[in-house]
Amino acid sequence: MKSIYKTVFGLPPSVILLVTLTLLAVTLSLSKSQAQQTNGDAIFSSNQIHTIYLQFSQTSWFDSLLATHAGDYYMSVNGIFDGDTLNNIGIKTKGNSSFNNPNNKKSLKIDFDIYDSTLAWDGLTKINLNNGFKDPTFLREKIALDFANTHGVYAPRCTYANVYLNNQLWGLYMLVEEVDNKFLKDRFGNKNGNLFKGDPNGTLNYMGASATPYYSAYELHTNEIANDWSDLILLCNTLNNSPAATLQSSLDTVIDLQEWYRAWACNILFANMDSYQGSGHNYFIYHNTITDKFEWISWDVNESFGVFLNGLTTAQLKALPPDYIPSGQNRPLETRPLDDADMKCDYYQAVYNLLMTGFDSSFFNPMIDSLSDWIRPSVYADPHKFFTNQDFETNLTTDIGNTPGLKNFIPERVNAVLPLLLASGCNLSGVNNELTIDNGQLTVYPNPCSQWLVVSGSWLGNKIEVKDVLGRTVLSSIIRYPSPILLDVNDLQAGIYFLSVKTANGKMMSRKIVIQ
Question: By the 8 A CB rule, do 346 and 501 touch?
Fold first, then answer.
């Protein structure tokens, strides 16, 4: 990729002076190889659908693979990943409803270093291969995770792989990043805190000071030997028992509220009910040892776009209000903030921000077109897919039974939610070109732009990325010198992109930019 610095004629004199001083220090390249790399970058920023060959030596290997589900153990397999051979790795089936169906295409989890600690694929030691059992389009999980990742919500990355079992094409899979120590280190800069998964029913209700009652509702995924659940108990106690007058200040000491609001807003807008918002699970929370707060991590969003009914009709899911709580269910991390006027408006502001920065047809329709063109040959070739080729084409726009069409779903959600926000009485501030990061601003202008994008701020050490509508990184750099930084976007095709800035402690904020 070309340098981000070129001629600056036509820019304001103050900008020219600062850029000139910066040029005397260094010329920064937007080459990915010169930017800070994270585990899995080559996998998830690639423009190819990956190819994975898994070779089983066991007699009755498929029956043995199925048996790993009940026992929750790995079996050995040899693999070739985009031409790289990795032998003696672990594989098992995964999922609940995605497993319990008669189709032989099961979701899979691969552990590269379970038998040989030296093995990894692009730095990753675990990956997930999801089968798309309720999605005719193969797009729901990819779109929802990309949107989360570019809008300040912690979530795994997603791409695609054609998977072969014993040289037989088994089908197209969503390749999803594992939430593990590598994920934690990349996102938060630390991995020593407690990572809890809210399964099978992690509703965050307070169940007393003893850890024992929590064991059946959550899974501890780190520090298992220490087995110290006191931080989760403190979170639940603070959430459920703090007086209303001090709830916001008390809760803000144990969980990153703004990040939680964004994650909540994403699930509501995508009507993802197989989550805390509906079924009460499918999330992680991580005790960040730098901030000493819990961070919310979205997980298992494959039933986004209103697929998981959770006792509702498709029409009700399309009209889902931002303050939805499952009937008869206690969700204290929603009910208590909604009862507090200031916290409710903070959450509504997060929903409004998403509507103003990409949750609209002008962004999603080109993304759906691009992604569907990309994966169509693999979808058609999939011998074990759960739907027909015509279902794939139809569901891109149109409902199939209780499965909403993707393109039609977006304006229906906007039309249902936006009027409720505007009528709420909350002072919803407009969204401009300033990114708010750790209580500071980073300004991006002009927007729309045609050649130069000026990024102004003082965020040394932070990572800037520009992603296209497929979620692929097209420009990337570390801010190593004072602003302003000029991004040369002349080579980018006209369209919608997202500029994201990752802070030193792993937080990500994003803004939609338009290239003319």
Answer: no
Element (H, E) at 177: strand 168-177
Place of tokens 């994975």: 52
Give the residue from 154, 89, 148 showing the smallest Cα distance to 124. Answer: 89
pLDDT band at 2 (very low <50, low <70, confident <90, very high): very low
- Which pLDDT does position 5 carry in this prediction? 32
Question: DSSP character for 244?
Answer: G
Beta bridge partners of 128: 109, 176
Question: Three-state DSSP class for 246?
Answer: helix
- Whether 361 and 514 have beta carbons less than 8 Å apart is answered as no
Stronger pLDDT, 42 or 13, i.e. the higher one:
42
Paired strand residues for 81: 52, 84
Compute the radius of gyration of the chain from its Cα atoms.
Answer: 23
Which two tokens mark 112? 């590269």
pLDDT digits (tens, 9 = 90+) for 239-287: 999 999 999 999 999 999 999 999 999 999 999 999 999 999 999 999 9
Q: Which residue, among 42, 34, 37, 33, has the nearest Cα to 122 in the 3D structure?
A: 42
Whole-number Å distance between alpha carbons of 177 and 110? 11
- CB burial string 151-190: b at 16+ within 10 A, e below: bbbbbbbbbbbbbbbeeeebbbbbbbbbbbbbbbebbbeb
Q: Looking at residue 74, what DSSP letter applies?
A: -
Q: What is the pLDDT of residue 433?
A: 63
In which residue are the tokens 């099978």 written? 200
Encoded tokens for 499: 């500029």
Chain Cα centroid distance, residue 325: 23
Mean local confidence (pLDDT), 430-436: 63
Tokens of 197: 């998964």
Helix H or strand E segment including 101: none
Nearest Cα neighbor of 277 from 250, 301, 244 is 301
Residues 95-132: pLDDT tens digits? 988 999 889 999 999 999 999 999 999 999 999 999 99
State the pLDDT at residue 497.
85
DSSP E strand stretches across 61-157: 75-81, 84-93, 108-111, 126-130
Q: pTM value?
A: 0.85
Order the strands of the 508-515 sheet from edge to edge: 473-478, 463-467, 495-502, 508-515
* Alpha-carbon span 113 to 125, nearest angstrom: 6
Q: What is the torsional sign of CA 99, 395, 357, 481?
A: positive
**Cα separation, 138 vs 376, whole angstroms:** 10
